[in-house]
Design a protein that fits this description.
Strand order of the largest sheet: 6-2-1-9-10-11
Order of helices and strands: EEHEEEHEEEEEEH
Structural class: alpha+beta
Strand content: 25-35%
Largest sheet: 6 strands, antiparallel
Mean pLDDT: 88
Number of helices: 3
Shape: flat
Radius of gyration: 27 Å
């Protein structure tokens, strides 16, 4: 198998969820990808017929296998998931699948996410059935720049959307330590002597009159 490298995720492929809500102060967010993202990335990189997933231990483990034409065999990577608060069994299988995807390198740049804190005045909350507070709306990743070489997030922007209202910016971060892209050196112009030599060569090859153009 030639070196398999999945491209970096785009902002629209990444979601933000609340890890912890601190009433009256703000919320800590985490970035994540869903299982459909992994499926699309695998289809895109290796083709829909060249990968497969298998679950074991009551969906706690997932194995993603990719076909290797050179070895004429499947190459597999496996990981274990944790159940979600809702639909525990389905969530367990999905989490195991996403973690196996991380092993293959899908979305591994999410591990470089900065600490995401959003002040309480940037989003809305409501009372839940238990009498506590929960976020009333959703957070949307509007921009995520990733350095292709280091696979590190260098810029992140998140907005909050409440009902049908327009999304409003609530978090912005730029990695000030990130190295700026190295500018490409301008193409070097050949010297006058090299231009003359090339002109002479072309004249010889084409049997053209050797009268030099004006300016030489």
């Amino acid at each position: 198998m030639k070196e398999l490298k999945f491209r970096c995720l785009r902002a629209e492929e990444v979601n933000a969820r609340v890890q912890k809500l601190v009433a009256g102060k703000g919320a800590i967010l985490l970035l994540y990808k869903d299982a459909r993202c992994d499926m699309a990335m695998l289809d895109e990189a290796v083709g829909a017929f060249n990968w497969k997933r298998e679950h074991s231990r009551d969906n706690a483990n997932c194995t993603i296998s990719i076909w290797d034409d050179e070895k004429n065999q499947w190459v597999s990577k496996e990981d274990v998931g944790t159940p979600s608060n809702t639909e525990a069994e389905k969530g367990l299988a999905s989490d195991a699948f996403k973690r196996a995807g991380f092993n293959w390198g899908i979305g591994r740049e999410l591990y470089t996410s900065p600490f995401i804190w959003v002040n309480a005045d940037k989003f809305k909350t409501r009372k839940n059935q238990r009498g506590g507070e929960e976020v009333d709306g959703k957070f949307i990743v509007t921009r995520m720049d990733v350095d292709e070489d280091s696979r590190k997030i260098t810029r992140l922007e998140i907005a909050f959307k409440h009902n049908n209202n327009p999304a409003t910016p609530c978090f912005k971060w730029v990695d000030t330590d990130a190295k700026p892209a190295t500018p490409k050196e301008p193409a070097k112009q050949p010297s006058r002597a090299a231009q003359l030599a090339e002109h002479e060569r072309l004249l010889t090859e084409t049997n053209t009159d050797r009268q030099k153009p004006r300016g030489y």
